[in-house]
Amino acid sequence: MAIEQNSVVSMHYELKDVQNGEVLDSNLGSAPLSFILGKGHIISGLESEIAKLAEGETAEIKVAAADAYGEYDAEAVQTLPKEQFAGIDLFEGMTLYGQGEHGQTVQVTVKGFSDETVEVDFNHPLAGKDLLFAISVAEVRDATEDELLTGVVGGSAAAGGCCGGSGGCGSHTHFHGDEDECCGSHGHSHGGSCCGSH
User: Fold this and answer.
1) Would you call 80 helix, strand, or coil by DSSP?
2) N or C, which end of the chain is more exposed by having fewer CB within 10 Å?
3) Which residues contact 185 (CB under 8 A, 6 or more apart)?
4) What is the CATH number assigned to the segment(s) 7-71+127-160?
């Protein structure tokens, strides 16, 4: 029996890179990730497959890069003025978050820097990767009116989560460090998860 749109789905997952089998993220042994099905809170290729499951079911779901975080775009690597990173102790490979021209959350990875400029990569860290999710659906329930209105499980945004996504590059973007360990952020937060969103 399929899960209906606008249902709250709670699940445990383990995420691996298809190519090398490396575990990229997992919430096994901790609280399940909860999201509203059909709201685009997780990557489309995963969401469409979860909709076919039922409470209590498990599945291994392979999601191609095109249906996950997209193909790697070499043009998304840009050089920006260092003053946009004022107050940040930069190091190569660090992840930074900022606000783009249209208020969207933008995530970048620092690829290198000089006294004048910083080279950043706007690609999601999982761009170009085919992903394998081992999913266990812990619970399915109807969303409350507040949850449907806000689009957030529990009615308010949870702090410190990640649900992935694509950010745009804007010349007026200002960045800040983030102590949360995650592999993507855009708008909604889901308690430290890494399952993706747009």
Assistant:
1) strand
2) N
3) 97, 105, 107, 161, 162, 163, 164, 165, 178
4) 3.10.50.40
26 within 8 A of 32, measured Cβ to Cβ? no
Given a contact cutoff of 8 angstroms between Cβ atoms, the answer to whether 108 and 72 are in contact is no
Structure tokens at 71: 């193909």
pLDDT tens for each residue of 126-163: 999 999 999 999 999 999 999 999 888 985 443 333 33
pLDDT (average), residues 84-101:
88
| Alpha helices, DSSP H, located in 15-140 | 44-50
Domain edges within the chain: 7-71+127-160
Residue appearing with tokens 């946009």: 84
Per this entry, what is the length of the chain?
198
What DSSP line would sit under 29-96, residue for residue? Answer: TSPPEEEETTSS-S-HHHHHHHTT--TT-EEEEEE-GGGTT----GGGEEEEEGGGGTT----TT-EE
Look over the chain and give the mean of its residue pLDDT values, rounded to a whole number: 81
pTM: 0.71
Residues sharing a CB contact under 8 Å with residue 73, sequence separation 6 or more, in sequence order: 123, 127
